[in-house]
Every structure is written in C-alpha cells, then in structure tokens.
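Quick question: what would this complex look like in 3D?
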Amino acid sequence: MLLLAPKIQVLPDIEFPKFLAINLCHACRQTNVGNEDAFTVGLPPAWVDYSDEIAANIQQARIKMSELVKAHARSLMPSFGDGNEEQHTIEALTREITELLRRSEKRLQKFPANGSSEDSNVRKNVQRSLATDLQNLSMDLRRKQSTYLKSLRQQNEGNDGADLEMNLNGSRSQLEDDEFGDLGFNEQQLSRLRNSEQFTVEREREIKQVVQSFNELAQIMKDLSVLVIDQGTIVDRIDYNIQNVATAVEEGFKQLQKAEKTQKEGGMVRCATILVIMCFVMLVLLVLKEILL
Amino acid sequence: MVLVSAARDYINRMLQDISGMKVLILDSYTISIVSVVYSQSELLQKEVFLVELVESISMSRESMSHLKAVCFLRPISENIQHLRRQLASPRFGEYHLFFSNILKDTQIHILADSDEQEIVQQLQEFYADFVAVDPYHFTLNIQSNHTYMLPAVVDPSNWQHLCDRVVDGIAAVFLALKRRPIIRYQSKSDIAKRVAHETAKLMYQQESGLFDFRRTEVSPLLLVIDRRDDPVTPLLNQWTYQAMVHELIGIQDNKVDLRNMGKFSKDQQEVVLSSEQDSFFKSNMYENFGDIGMNIKHLVDEFQQISKSNQNIQTIEDMAKFVDNYPEYRQMHGNVSKHVTLVTEMSKIVEERKLMLVSQTEQELACNGGEVTAFEAVKNLLDNENLSEIDRLRLVMLYALRYEKEKPVNLMNLCNKLASQSAKYKPGLVQFLLKQAGVDKRSGDLFGNRDLLNIARNMARGLKGVENVYTQHQPFLFQTMENIVKGRLKDTEYPYVGNHFQQGRPQDVVIFIVGGTTYEESRSVALQNASNSGTRFILGGSVVLNSKRFLKDLEEAQRITRSSPSVI
C-alpha cells in the first residue's frame, strides 16, 4: 500500500512536533517504496520562516529602489508644475524602503537562540548572509540619496543665483529709469521674491527629510556591520569555522559533564533531605507528645 | 592563476545547479583544498549554510532533511565507508556526491548498493585533488613525507602509499588542465623514476580514454625530481616575505598561527596570507625584508592619514562619507595590523637568534667563498653561545654538503663539536644527510663547481659583487628551468619515460619535487613566469618545506633506518 505524505506547508503558528515527523519517516520506509515525496516530510525549523520573510522584504525593497531611482530622475528634470507630486512619491518610497530595511534588521536581530548546535550553525550562517544583503542594500540606498541630494543642492543654488541676478538687474534698471522713484521693490519684484522664498523653503524641507533618512540608514548599517563577516580575515576561512565549531561543541559537552557530576555528588542535596526527614520526625514526635499528655 | 581558477571553477560547478539550502560535507584533505580557494562568505552567497566533516556527520542523530548535502571527498576507502553508513540512515534530504579523483569501479558499486532509498541525485568526478596555495604552486600536504628518503624495502606499504598519492595528485592537476604530458624524471632517484613510470601507465594505458584530450602541437612536460638533488635550499634561512614567514613562523594552507609566539589580540592570533585576497601581500610577497619594512611604513602612514581625517567629522556630508567608507576602513585597519604584527614578530626572532650573522655565513657556504674562510666562520659561530641548536645544525650541514670531499677531517671536527655542545643532537644525522644527498647521489651541479663553464660564471659573479648578500642564493631549480627553456636539459640526467620524446621547447611545464618544495623555489618560478619567456611553469610538491620540516623528515627517516633490520 502506498503511503503518500503530501508536502506540508509550514504555517508559522503551528508547531508540528518533531517526533511525529520522524515516525512518519519510519512508516514511509517500511512500505518499501522509494517515493521521493514521502521523504520531504521533514519540516524545516521555525526560523526558516523568518529568513524567508526577510528575503521577501529584501526583494521588495529592491523593486522599490528601482522605482525610487526613476522618481529621482523625474523630479530633477525641469518641469512647469510645482513638482509636489514627485516629492510626495519620493518621500513615500524612501520611507517605505527605510521601514522595510529597519523591520528586516529587527527581525534579524531577533532570531531565536535555542536549538541544537548544528541547527544554530545553519541559523548563524543564514543570519550572516542576510545581514550582508541588507548592508549592501542600505549602502546602495544611501549612495543614491546622496547623489540626488547633491543634484538638488546644485539646482537650488542655480535657481537662487538666477533669481538674485534678476533682482539685482531689476533694481539697477529701476534706479536708472526713475530718478525720484520708489527705491523699494515694486510689485513684480515682490512676487518674484515671494516665489523664490517659497521655492527655497520647499527645497529645504526636502533636504531635511533626505538627511533624516540618511541618519536612520547609518544607524542600521552600524548595527549590521557587527553581523557581517570581514572578507580576507581568518573568520572568512572555512577550515577555521569548522575548527571553532568542533572546539565549541567539545567545550560545551565537557562543561555539561562537569556540571552533572558536581550536581550529583552535591552534598547539599543529601543534607537537605536529611534535614527535611528530621523535621518530619520531630513534628510527629511533637504531635504524639501532645496526644499522650 | 591557472590552478586556483581551475579549483574554483570545479567548486562553482558543484554548487550552481542545486537550489535551496545546502550543507557542504568535506573530509580532512578536501577541507584544505577548498579553504585556500573559496571563502566562507562566498559559500554563504551560494546558499551553503553549513559545512561539516564526513567523519562527524554520523555522530549526530539530528535529521535536517530541508538541507541538501553536497559531498566533496577524496575517493579513499574510509570516506566510502562513512558514506555507506550515512546513506543507510540519511540525515539530509538529497545527496550530491563529488569526488576529487578517479573512482574505482568497486567503490561505485559499494555506493550504489548502499543507496537503498535512492537519495543520491548525482555522482561526479571533479579533479581538484591538490591544494593550490599560489597561482603557480600547489602542494599535496602529505603527512608521511619522510618515506621518500627510505628505500622501498624498508616500509613497502607506506612507500607505495606515498607514490600513489603523488601519482593521484599529478593526474588531477593534468586532468584539471585538460592536457596529457610527456614525462621526464631524474635518473638517480628511485622514487622519481617510480612515480614517473606509474603516472605514464595511468595516463597512457589504464585511463587513456580519460586523458585523451585534444592534442596540441607541443605537448606539455612533466618533470619529476627529487628533493635530495637540492638539499641546500630548504636548509637556508630566507629573507623574502612569504618565504621568511614560513621559515620563522610557519604557513599552513595560507594561514599563519601566531598563538605560540606570545600574547596577541583575538583577531591577530591567526591570520591569512593569501595573494588572491590581499593586494599588499601580492605586491610584496617576493620582496626582501628591507623593502618590506619601507612599504609597510608607507602603508601605516597612509592609514594614519585616513584615520585622522575620519576623526574630523563636522558636517553631515563628512558623516555620510565616513559611513560610506567604513567597511573599507575596517578592512584596511585589519590588514595593516596583520602585516605590522608579522613584521614585528619576525624582527624579534631575527634579533634573538642572531640570524643576520648566521645567514651571512650560510649564504657564503651555499654560493661562493673558499674552504678555509668557511671553516673558520663555522667554527666561530659554533662557539657563539647565543645561537640556537637548529641554526648550528644547519651550518654544519651546509658545510658538509659543500666540502664533504675536500676536507673530511674538518668536517669530523665540526660534527664532534656539535655533538658535544647540544644534548638534543642526534648523532650521525649529518652523515645520514650525506648518505642521502651527498655529492655522489646528486645528479646536478648544485654548487656550480663541476665544470669549467660554471666555475668561470661563479668567479665572474664573485668579482662583480652582489646586491644583497642575504639573497644571493638562487635555488638549483632556477638552472633547471633555464635549461628547459633553452632546450638544454640533458637526457642522461633527466631521461624520458618509455618512448616519449619532445621536439623543441615545451610551452607548459609542471615540475613536481618529491619530498617537498620551498617558497624560495616558488618565488623563482613566479619570477620566471613573469619574465615572459614563452614557457609557463607550475611547481608542485608533496609538502611545503621549511628547515624545521626538512630536518624533522631527516630525523624520522634516520630513526626508521636505524630500527629497521633490512637496511644495508
């Protein structure tokens, strides 16, 4: 009889007991069928879901980054309108990406620390690889933002410079024309001034927001740099890592053995038991004394 | 580049088509092979999240069937047994088996029989059976290397084992390069002859189908020589960076272990010296000690400038630039500390052991100088109490190799003096060396004093004076390479195997030294390759020697010879 165990989808909340999985495996083997479906019953541990989630976040962040680049380019082009829409899109995208990265990073830090030694090795390595990806993404985002910022600043100065020039020329021509005239600004110049002021205020706001997301990203990068492997050092060598695992496991085993021994021979336990027994005996004697007297 | 890229290529092919989370299973040989060409971060990029040794995978009962196992092992019987046990009660979901050399049919049958659950998805041979320490230098890390000094009758099984391992290693190199060579060997060495003949048998008869590659006009050349033809090079003290580190501290698989040398901070206890990953090392590995000091000083100055500018963070832009450059800054910091630590340690050792003094005499013994001055110098140095035992032993050995025939009485004096001074000296070691590698046993003209042309050349060099008295020695390999390039390698000294013959000059040459290579020789090969003479050399050996290892092999061989009844 064929025992076909379907590929079970692991839901994050359900904890499929491990022994059940192993029993299923045994059952499959006994039916003597070399069916490969029967052996994918072994479920991956729960943290694999976290790592899948983070990987999906990274993918999404990448897609949004390419959209952000397009939005940057569009906003830098000269346009007739105010360009407010573009600003909103850029702000929204930047915020979303930073949020994704921050969430992934928090998730990464929160990886569970229990599990068997081998499982923890796999988990640590997965953590490292995701940390490297996240760090690369953050650096990429910051670089794109800094180029955008630079081009913004250039544009800003350009605009201010042009306006000031116009104003200067305007006032000069005014003086030349009007001998007794008003030495202040006339209507036209006032409105131009107001416009450029508004423009400057807007740009300043944008710059402030970009700088703020910069700082957040810098923080993320600093946190991540602890998890990432330095290339070219001894930590990046495969044989060094295997050696370390072996020694760590051995050390842990020795410690466990020592702890077990000291606990077993604990004179404390014996003393405590004797005292408790004596307490009971005394209590019984006391009660007897009360009854007999 | 060619050896490193061949090995990397194989590993890439193993990992690329398998999707999902993987575990890489290696044995104690293949872990060296993989570690020198592939890094942990690259493995992580390929989704390999666990690396284990084949001997310990059966020890744990934990089942991880969401992982796919990629096994890269040498085709030896212990590994086959481990695999059999594992396949009987598998821990991982799928098994992809790769072997580093040619599998025997019986081994394939055993594996097929034990795969009852059909979890083995593929089985292939990827011929990366050598440790590619440098682009043109490979080693086989053979533990029982000393066996090459013993005649076959003393320990036939170990001797055969050594030959087999060497033949397998050489075969893997040529399979990786996809060529089949013409083979020549050193006539006076039995083991070289045996290795050459067995390699020829493997390549031309037993597995001729496997080795039947596209024939080019000029076949490559395999030259098998014996370490004992040039015993001087491993005994000398070295002054070029890579060779010096190996001689004074010790490099194993491109790693340097500083833990025995004193107290260091945690990340400087073991360091990596790889020309692929460290550009400063790549440009300085063949420079001599004085130049290295200057270059490191430049490096430290550069680094100090960068860190000073990093402390001056005023605007947001500065901050942004700092965070951008932080990973590179950190890497540079680690690199600078590593090189500074190494050079400091080596300077300390040079000071303690008075190596400048010793090395001057060593170089004179090896290159030129008359007998009388040499004897006086060695005697004086032996009287010097500050010298360590190994240095004294080396001086006497060099004197012995050079002047064994001219003044045997002097040599006897020196040996007696040595024996009286140090308790650890094993008596008869110098004589054992002469029996192994003395003038009668060597085929080449090691000291350039046999034929008139060489004598004249030496005199001319002596008159001209040398740039640096500490690096004047050229390993004998240099002359061999020159002869190959000019097509002047003598048939009597280096005969062909069977009816091979080579017209003209070869374009690719693999030189294998049975008994071990040295970093001085690999430097020679690298410089020769850089000079674009039309021939590309690759050097390989059973181990990478320094004087300590060479002397250890010698002592071990002497001990076995003494305790064995069957030696004449």
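Answer marked as accepted. Confidence is low (pLDDT under 50) at residues 1-41, 161-181 of chain A.
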